[in-house]
Amino acid sequence: MLKKIILKIAEIISIGWKVVPYRFRLGIFTSLLIVESRGSNIKSGLSRLFLIKDKIDWIINERALTLGHGIHPKHRLINYHSFFIDNIKNGQNVLDIGCGYGSVAFSIANSRPKSQVCGIDLDDNKLKKAEKFSNLKNLNFLNFDATKNIPEGNWDVIVLSNVLEHIENRVDFLKKIIKKSGSKIFLIRVPNFERHWEIPQRKELGINYYSDDDHKIEHTLHEFINEINNAGLMSREIKTIWGEIWCNSIVSEM
Question: What is the CATH architecture of 79-251?
Answer without folding.
Answer: 3-Layer(aba) Sandwich (3.40)
